[in-house]
Design a protein that fits this description.
It is a single chain. This protein is an all-beta fold. It contains no helices and 13 strands. It has strands at 2-5, 8-15, 19-26, 40-56, 63-68, 73-76, 81-98, 112-117, 125-133, 136-142, 147-153, 156-161, 166-170. The radius of gyration is 30 Å and the shape is elongated. The termini are far apart.
Length: 171
């Protein structure tokens, strides 16, 4: 569907859960509204004509301006006010997408591994390694009658089990 704007027209080519792709016909002297997208990146690729993209940065008072000609591309981060101006009549493509945050994990529990250990005087003894953070680990030993907890730091190189002794070797 093609939609008229004061600065030209925009035609939606593709929209799905990952991106939006538009073809825009821009008229010289046309200017879009100053706006921002909270979560979406906004990319501009010029096929013909010239476009100026203004970006108001959050961390200083200057306005960045990029002039694009045929075959050139720029993108605007989410959360930044921006605006484009048509310097020469032409065609451009506008792309919107949300970026995955690769560090968006929020842990409710800590991962662990349990191993059943058989030793001369111990049966059904369980060792649990809790990797709370790279600087420490917790060793929890369970047997039928009681629970033993030993804290060991990142210098721990081995844990040795003997009939009545647990040894933790540090570097």
């Amino acid at each position: 569907m093609k939609a008229g704007k004061v600065w030209g027209t925009t035609e939606l080519i593709e929209a799905n859960g990952a991106l939006e792709f538009h073809r825009i016909e821009m008229i010289q002297g046309g200017v879009c509204s100053k706006h921002l997208h909270e979560f979406k990146w906004n990319g501009f690729f010029v096929e013909s004509g010239k476009m100026k993209v203004k970006v108001w940065q959050n961390d200083y008072d200057l306005v960045d301006e990029t002039i694009l000609g045929p075959g050139q591309y720029t993108k605007v981060k989410p959360g930044l006010y921006h605006q484009f101006e048509c310097l020469e009549t032409g065609v451009a493509y506008e792309l919107y997408w949300a970026e995955f945050n690769h560090n968006d994990i929020k842990r409710d529990t800590v991962g662990y591994r349990e191993e059943i250990i058989s030793n001369n005087n111990y049966t059904d003894l369980t060792l649990t390694l809790h990797d709370a953070d790279p600087e420490s680990m917790t060793l929890t030993l369970h047997d039928a009658d009681s629970s033993y907890i030993t804290m060991a730091d990142s210098n721990t190189t081995s844990v040795t089990f003997e009939p009545d002794i647990i040894t933790i070797d540090d570097d």
